[in-house]
Amino acid sequence: MLIQLLFGAFILYVLLLLVRSSFGVDNSHWKPEETGFVDPASHVQHDFPSLMKDPPTVKLSVIIPAYNEEKRIARMLDETFSFLKRKQQFDQTSDKVDKFSFEIIVVDDGSSDQTCQVVNKYIREETTQLIRLLKLSRNRGKGGAIRRGMMVARGEQLLMADADGATQFSCLDDLMLALEKICKKSVADSHGIAIGSRSHLVNSEQVVNRKWYRNILMYGFHFIVWFFCVKNIQDTQCGFKLFTRKTARFLFPNQHVERWAFDVELLYLAERHGIPMVEVGVNWEEIEGSKLSPLWSSLEMARDILRVRFFYLLGLWNVDLPFSQ
After folding, report:
1. Please, which of 175, 284, 294, 310 could form a disulfide with 194 given CB 3.0 to 4.6 Å?
2. pTM
3. 248-267 per-position pLDDT tens digit
4. Going by CATH, does the domain composed of 28-211+234-293 fall within 3.90.550.10?
5. What is the spatial distance between Cα 256 and Cα 37, in angstroms, rounded to a whole number?
């Protein structure tokens, strides 16, 4: 009897969690201070452009969510700028008509450390044409930070990349090539996602030698994702994904999940609507300083995966912007 009561209480608790968050997030509400960026050199605030309303003006936007990343983000930005500048210089000396250009958008997700000060140092050195800081009024979660960064991006292609620099940034070339291959027309006029993948590292030393419970949680999470949501992607959680602008315009306004499992919702919607996707193996290493608590984050992600599957199925979540080929 006691076991039945405890089980019933657990089920009721899960249902209450699901119902409490059933309506997701308000994608239309932005705080006034989140609609612009400040040039730290002149202290003048400028309005961000709009993913939905404005045409692309650079080839690539790099969206970096950052929450208390003062100790890790400088290394990542150094690597990112070094690679992108070399790529840009190479294009300038080539015969290509469509020259490579880029921007970096760092989304500060309510940090309480010196993350913004570190980023502003780069903005002073590189100017707001190359790097901009979007400061959120409160912590939204990784998915919420990325969604807001995507919504103000100028790129024809949009890359999400983690602030810890766990994925070698030069792998971008492989993603761009793979994305071009799966697009039915030009990249500018097509749907498509190139997904950085660590699936080839499953039997590598860095995974095998991790603590046993992390690997159990990893395999359990992969099974839940496959069973409920995404069938054709092996690694949904690598923080290195490249979207065409057309796909970003469809996915991110329709995104509801703002925490760790947001990738699953994006890929679920993409798979459901037939958006071409390709996994690309990347060079990846585990970086110390993760904000992820293995146990509690796994429970939170499992909850969000159930939300994604059943709320779309039951019509509690809908695709507000229609999909167009």
Report:
1. 175
2. 0.88
3. 999 999 999 998 899 999 99
4. yes
5. 25
